[in-house]
Amino acid sequence: MSPRDAEAPSAFERAVDGFLNALTHERRASSNTVKAYKKDLEQLAAFAKEKRPGPLEPSGVDVLLLRGWLGTLARTHEASSVARKISAVRALYRYLRKTDQVKIDPARSLSLPKVARKMPTVLNVDAAREVVTAIGGEREVEKRDRAMLELLYGSGIRVGELVALDVADIDLREREARVFGKGKKQRVVPLGGPTIEALTEYLAVRSTLVKEGSADAQALFLGARGGRIHPRVVGAMVKRAGALGAGRSDVHPHALRHTCATHMLDGGAELRSIQELLGHESLATTQRYTHVSMEHILKVYDLAHPLATTRARAKS
Fold first, then answer.
1. Total-model pTM
2. Are 188 and 53 part of one and the same domain?
3. Over pLDDT 70: what percentage of the chain?
4. Residue 301 has pLDDT above 80, yes or no
């Protein structure tokens, strides 16, 4: 066998490439999901080669091999990471079954580890207002940052959706923005008064951030070098606003999304409306905000309801 033949991808690796291609172009999964699945399945292939030398076929992966792999992972990885890797293998073999590349799915009998669900970070109304208004000033980047904060909290969009916005996606007259979410799915989100005001002020000075010949000249939010702003830059800005406005170091873009959803629920919005606003595929994803909202209601009850205050005095 020549060195060139030795480097040729195995049948399993070719099957993984086909799966990732279908994931990207047919299911239109996000680039982050594709990258994560690619890394997980490459780890599985490396483990299989170590345990079973020789050409690896998709049908050569069985339950014993998978359990051995997951057993080694469990010693060094969090339960949430192991659960994602199982999801990657399950998705791969569903695809291989569907395309008649295997007859038996070894991943069907795998059980997901129990993952403790963390409650999302949610700010109260006063803290949210302080964070969103923490960055002021007349400089272009300050107006840009204020507009991004208003959009994240006011419309509950994801940071990836925020940085992907183009100027043409914003309609100030109709008070709405066109957003492309997961799987390239488009939705329209409303823009509140403070968001409209912040965007209007930013758009009036945005041209000063545009660099001549930039490929990202159509991007709504621009970085210091004139290119489309990066999610990490937005994350650092939100964290800074959290520290300045509310004295908190745990504020991140997704926390503003959680806060938007929770405040809407507290204000009487229906779950279906919040689901559409946030772009959740499943209502179950949106329902987690009911737990956060219930915690808030119980605190208010304990502070304000006569029976609650009576019980509190009786205990003291």
1. 0.62
2. no
3. 86
4. no
Q: What is the CA radius of gyration of the chain?
A: 24
Query: Are 75 and 145 in the same domain?
Result: no
Compute the CA torsion angle 124, 126, 131, 132 (nearest 10 deg). 110
Q: Which residues are catalytic?
A: 158, 182, 254, 257, 280, 289
Tell me if 315 is assigned to some domain.
no
Residue 313 lies in a domain: no
Rounded Cα–Cα distance for residues 288 and 274 (Å): 12
Domain span including residue 272: 125-303
- At 134-169, the pLDDT tens digits run 998 899 999 999 999 999 999 999 999 999 999 999
> At 269, is the pLDDT very low, low, confident or very high (cuts 50, 70, 90)?
confident
Looking up residue 80, the CATH number of its domain turns out to be 1.10.150.130
How far apart, in whole angstroms, are the C-alpha atoms of residue 1 and residue 297? 70
Average pLDDT across the chain, whole number? 86
Phi, psi of 104 (to 5 degrees): -120, 135
* Alpha-carbon span 38 to 32, nearest angstrom: 10
